[in-house]
Design a protein that fits this description.
The protein is built from three helices and three strands. The protein has helices at about 5-35, 45-55, 85-95, and strands at about 65-70, 75-80, 100-110. Helix 2 packs across helix 3 (about 85-95).
């Protein structure tokens, strides 16, 4: 079995890494082309609705820190919470906001230590 030297595989590897990094940027670029710099109509309202709903749940209050951003009716949740239950609650509450099409959750769970 013959394999190529690493220096010959490098251009292919660079192409794969480049495409992997560029594709998420394409989604943002498409929304920018569709809605402009200010965002799509209703995105700010959806974000405000999600934030207001979060205030109704003590489980989602500090020390849990969740950032909410909406882009083309997709609600993005980032930040940190204490438990999986809090993260699941944040997802379900955000999805209840009027106009939200779906939720993308990158919330991390706080490490409590040993």
């Amino acid at each position: 079995m013959r394999t190529e030297p690493f220096h010959l595989k490098l251009p292919s590897l660079a192409l794969v890494v480049g495409l992997t990094c560029a594709l998420p940027g394409c989604a943002v670029f498409n929304v920018y082309n569709k809605c402009g710099f200010a965002g799509c109509p209703g995105d700010a309202r959806i974000t405000a609705d999600v934030v207001a709903r979060f205030r109704s749940y003590t489980t989602l209050q500090p020390p849990n820190l969740i950032r909410v951003q909406t882009l083309d009716r997709v609600v993005y949740l980032t930040g940190q919470v204490n438990t999986d239950t809090a993260r699941d609650l944040a997802d379900s509450v955000a999805l209840q906001a009027a106009g939200a099409a779906r939720v993308v959750d990158t919330i991390s769970i706080e490490y409590a230590g040993p």
